[in-house]
Design a protein that fits this description.
- By secondary structure, this protein is an all-alpha fold.
- The protein has one domain.
- Helix 1 crosses helix 3.
- The protein starts with 16 loop residues before the first helix and ends with a helix.
- The model has no long low-confidence stretch (mean pLDDT 80).
Length: 81
């Protein structure tokens, strides 16, 4: 937050939405979000790509991958029931 010169967090930062938006913005290229900054709910994706390290990217892939596996397992479980 200090690097970004932000004093407050967004109103969306209730049940952990910031974690998921950071993970999605780290996995997808910044150009997906547009250049006008209309999707800067918490953080500009271009800035996030610059300040994120290898560990953050790995954790983002792990989080999104585990969520995808959870959804696939849920679909399989419902189909077999």
């Amino acid at each position: 937050m200090q690097e970004l010169q932000k004093d407050t967090v967004s109103q969306w930062d209730g049940p952990g939405w910031r974690i998921f938006t950071y993970a999605i913005k780290l996995i997808l290229p910044p150009s997906v979000w547009g250049k006008d900054g209309e999707y800067k709910i918490f953080l500009d994706p271009y800035v996030l790509q610059k300040i994120a390290g290898r560990r953050e990217r790995l954790l983002a892939f792990w989080l999104m991958g585990s969520l995808m596996l959870l959804m696939l397992y849920g679909v399989y479980y419902v189909r077999e029931s």
